[in-house]
Amino acid sequence: LHEGDDLHPQENIVKMSQGEPLTDEDRLPWLLQLHGVIQRERCSGRDGFVTCSALKRLYRQIMLHGSTALDQEIRPPAPPDVFFLFLHGDFSLVHQRMMSRTAHFMKADLLHSQFELLEPPLGDEENVLFLDIARDINDIALEVEKHIISLKPQPVKL
Ligand SMILES: Nc1ncnc2c1ncn2[C@@H]1O[C@H](COP(=O)(O)OP(=O)(O)OP(=O)(O)O)[C@@H](O)[C@H]1O
Ligand SMILES: O=C(O)[C@H](O)[C@@H](O)[C@H](O)[C@H](O)CO
């Protein structure tokens, strides 16, 4: 399990702690780091998780394809062994949960800018499982587990 926040450069954490939203430019080195982690996990043959706010479609493309995603001409197909879990919920529920959290650098005030930027993975984005955060956390975990198992190649029965 890789927590995306651990890969932010220190200046990004400082910025967010001061209540300033990050820009695309701030996020680029971080997204490239996330891409590196995903590639290493893919090569390892293990299952891996990365938790982060992949708010915009371009961010998700960079996570999948690295800096080639910045080239509008190239739209490589989505790798079949990587998928997104989109944890969605309404503003008030996310805000309420953030307010009940203590000792986190991310202030609840920044949530407005995050919702403004959010491009939900609708339309033609592949390999996305939608999960409603209002559900019980154990049900969510169970659905994720089932989803992962369903994507694994089934053993051939002779
Ligand atoms: N399905 C759920 N039911 C009840 N509480 C939940 C659920 N999911 C998360 N929470 C609670 O909401 C709070 C925020 O969750 P968490 O810190 O995991 O979010 P996060 O997406 O990692 O946030 P950030 O990106 O800001 O670090 C935590 O206190 C967590 O226990
Ligand atoms: O792209 C960003 O603005 C950041 O990754 C944020 O989303 C925070 O780090 C996160 O929400 C706190 O965990």
Describe the structure.
With 158 residues, this protein is mainly α. It has one domain (2-151): Rossmann fold (3-Layer(aba) Sandwich). It is built from six helices and four strands. It has a two-stranded parallel ribbon. The chain has a two-stranded parallel ribbon with strand order 3-4. It is globular, with a radius of gyration of 17 Å. The mean pLDDT is 93. Residues 5, 16, 22, 27, 52-53, 106, 114 line the site of D-gluconic acid (GCO).
- The main sheet orders its strands as 1-2
Termini separation (Å)? 35 Å
* Spatial extent as radius of gyration: 17 Å
The distinct ligands, each listed once, are: adenosine-5'-triphosphate, D-gluconic acid
Provide the CATH topology. Rossmann fold
Number of distinct beta strands: 4
Task: Report the average pLDDT across residues.
Answer: 93
CATH class: Alpha Beta
Do you know the CATH architecture?
Answer: 3-Layer(aba) Sandwich
Question: What is the CATH H-level superfamily?
Answer: P-loop containing nucleotide triphosphate hydrolases
What is the string of helix and strand elements? EHHEHEHHEH
- Give the oligomer, counting copies of the same chain as homo and different chains as hetero: single chain
Query: How many separate structural domains?
Result: 1
Main β-sheet description? 2 strands, parallel
Strand content: 5-15%
Low-confidence stretches: none
Helix content: 40-55%
Q: Give the structural class.
A: mainly alpha
The number of helices is: 6
Shape: globular
